[in-house]
Design goal:
Structural class: alpha+beta
Strand order of the largest sheet: 8-9-10-13-14
Shape: globular
Number of strands: 14
Length: about 325
């Protein structure tokens, strides 16, 4: 609750979900363009997130259905006259505030599942480490969700690949411990990268501040599905990068590949930035190359969508012929 100078409760802020706001926030009520309107500013600590709502009808703050806030509801609980001096700025602590239970991989999986009905082929969350949120948990959730859709595509749209990265500054000698901590899952649908990059387009961005997962995801989008993202000519160079902190040398690169990782490297022949090997984290040699997975996904998705016209049709010899001809014509067109 927010109190006025007379210690009277005048506003109550209720968050939609339990978060990591440290039970602290700031509400500012500022003058609007007209006498009956105000600007409301909500700031949440410690994330530093801010919501600003301009020219809100002050009387609407007495009805929780009138004003929609992104992270919660701000309701007037006491009589506040517009003749009172503005701006009214209050710093307050939540009543009965709670940060909720510790976040787990399941929490992120449920959140990612909200995208299950959207066409989405690449899942990545590059370099994002909100307060109280584990990069590892997010990546584990992405990997789990991609694998789950592979097993149950009938309820979803499109098959997916999860792209993550090792922590910035990871070295070859760190890989063993990171494997024990599950940073490198055994997954046919997951790519984990090593080596962060320096971005050339924004001079104020810190050195080695670009998560390779972001670069890989963009690179994969412009690479044909049947082409390895590590191909030196048919897959484009990775641009807007001036340097990477990927370990250098044949021995280091062999260790990266052996541990089912990929990385951005400078090719000594082309002089350009490329992906090292184009593999997933799968230990299955039949599925470790990501281009195999992408071709499979394209065929499976195209046939799934292409055969929707026969749903609930009676099984007849004529229908079997249609199915065979449709599949054969499609596969011949891929050659």
């Amino acid at each position: 609750t927010l109190k006025d100078l007379d210690d009277t409760d005048v506003f109550k802020l209720t968050l939609i979900w339990a978060g990591v706001n440290g039970n602290a926030a700031t509400v500012s009520i500022l003058p609007g363009s007209e006498d009956d309107r105000v600007t409301v500013v909500l700031e949440y600590a410690p994330e530093g997130l801010k919501e600003t709502y301009v020219d809100v009808d002050f009387n609407d703050l007495y009805d929780e259905n009138k004003v929609s806030f992104l992270r919660g509801s701000l309701i007037a609980t006491g009589e506040v006259l517009l003749t009172d001096p503005l701006p009214v700025v209050g710093d307050f602590t939540f009543a009965s505030g709670s940060d909720g239970s510790t976040l787990t991989t399941d929490d992120f999986t449920l959140a990612i599942d909200m995208m299950k009905d959207y066409q989405c082929t690449i899942l990545t969350c590059p370099g994002i480490k909100p307060v109280g949120v584990s990069q590892l948990s997010i990546q584990a959730a992405m990997s789990a969700q991609a694998e789950a859709i592979d097993q149950d595509m009938g309820e979803h749209i499109g098959l997916r690949i999860a792209v993550g990265s090792l922590p910035r500054g990871s070295k070859i000698t760190d890989i063993a411990a990171l494997k024990v901590a599950n940073w490198i899952p055994n997954s046919k649908r997951t790519v984990i990268l090593m080596g962060w990059a320096t971005y050339s387009k924004l001079q104020t961005f810190k050195r080695f501040g670009i998560d390779p997962a972001a670069l890989y995801a963009a690179h994969l989008l412009v690479t044909p599905v049947h082409v390895s993202p590590a191909a030196r000519t048919s897959s484009p160079f990775i641009v807007s990068v001036t340097e990477v902190d990927t370990p250098v040398g044949t021995s280091a690169w062999n260790e990266i590949t052996k541990n089912k990782l990929d990385a951005i490297v400078v090719d000594p022949v082309t002089g350009g930035f490329h992906m090292l090997n184009g593999r997933s984290t799968s230990s299955d040699p039949a599925w470790c190359w990501i281009c195999y997975r992408r071709v499979y996904d394209k065929i499976r998705t195209d046939l799934f969508n292409g055969f929707q016209f026969i749903k609930s049709e009676p099984s007849t010899a004529a229908l079997d012929t249609v199915v065979q001809d449709t599949a054969n014509n499609y596969l011949q067109g891929l050659l």
